[in-house]
Amino acid sequence: MSAIDDLPPLREVIKSHGLSAKKSLGQNFLLDLNLTAKIARQAGDLTTSDVLEIGPGPGGLTRALLHEGARKVLAVEKDARCLPALADIAAHYPGRLEVINEDALAIDAASRLTPPIRVVANLPYNVGTELLVRWLTPEKWPPFWDSLTLMFQREVAERIVAAPGSKTYGRLSILTQWRAEAKIVMDLRPGAFTPPPKVSSAVVHIKRRDQMLFEADEKRLTRIVALAFQQRRKMLRASLKSLSPEIEDVLQSVGIAPTERAENVSIEAFCALTRALTR
């Protein structure tokens, strides 16, 4: 493992600061600085962007982001034990790292950053999906971020990029792809982490669209998709019957067979159905 700066190796940092990973915080530390640098590069050219990082832990990815030239990194860390290690990084990169000891679900990070903004994070497993949904469903679109480069459990990453007809296609696939372009850009085995998780991980790069892929009311679309996938093996005429007494006719009017199942319906068709049910 080669160093990317003059700071100590991460194993030394963890040992000197007593930073054993906490399961309650969803922590799994990535200690290979070659890998953290590779993740940082997946976010693109950082030299003209501010970066939001959630859950930096001992700072491996933080160091990579700064080394790759990020204009500023705002690191949100709930675990106060990590603050001294992050303070050492801030001193090494003066004026470019701000650390907030807060819960990422409870703060307005965007107000502390200057656009363009990229989000790059090895997300804690226990809040990763909730954060993604929040970033994809702001009150106004486009959002504060230009791109999201995020590490998830491999299963979640596959759901994000899934196409219609696959077993992993669902609400998260539609919510993401309706408003953004998403692709898996890296895979990581459990052994890359300390402690090793029980599952493999993957990095997803999500680039926002300035406009939605197809016209639809976001709240209505979200409700329709949630109902459709709540019991995904049901036919749509059954899973969506609460939306309209004429649901079979509405489905047929937009080219969806009432006997179809949600996993086979495209984003375009779901948006058409949303518009039809809005009239």
Features:
Helicase, Ruva Protein, domain 3; 7-stranded mixed beta sheet; single chain; 279 residues; 2 domains; elongated; Rossmann fold; 9 strands; alpha/beta; two-stranded antiparallel ribbon; 11 helices
What secondary-structure arrangement, pairings included, does this model have?
Blueprint: H1 10-17, E1 29-30, H2 33-42, E2 50-54, H3 60-67, E3 72-76, H4 83-92, E4 97-100, E5 117-122, H5 128-136, E6 147-153, H6 154-161, H7 171-179, E7 180-188, E8 193-194, E9 201-208, H8 218-230, H9 236-239, H10 247-253, H11 267-278
Parallel strand pairs: 2-3, 2-5, 3-4, 5-6
Antiparallel strand pairs: 1-8, 6-9, 7-9
Helix pairs in contact: 2-3, 8-11
Q: Alpha-carbon distance between the termini?
A: 60 Å
Shape: elongated
CATH-derived architecture of the largest domain: 3-Layer(aba) Sandwich
| Beta-strand proportion | 15-25%
Task: List unreliable stretches of 5+ residues.
Answer: none
Strands, count:
9
Can you tell me the number of structural domains?
A: 2
Give the CATH superfamily of the largest domain.
Answer: Vaccinia Virus protein VP39
Folded structure, characterized:
It is a single chain. A seven-stranded mixed beta sheet has the order 4-3-2-5-6-9-7. It is an alpha/beta fold and 279 residues long. α2 (33-42) packs across α3 (60-67) and α8 (218-230) packs across α11. The radius of gyration is 21 Å and the shape is elongated. The protein has two domains: 10-208, Rossmann fold (3-Layer(aba) Sandwich); 218-278, rRNA adenine dimethylase, C-terminal domain (Helicase, Ruva Protein, domain 3). It starts with 9 loop residues before the first helix and ends with a helix. The model has no long low-confidence stretch (mean pLDDT 94). The protein contains eleven helices and nine strands.
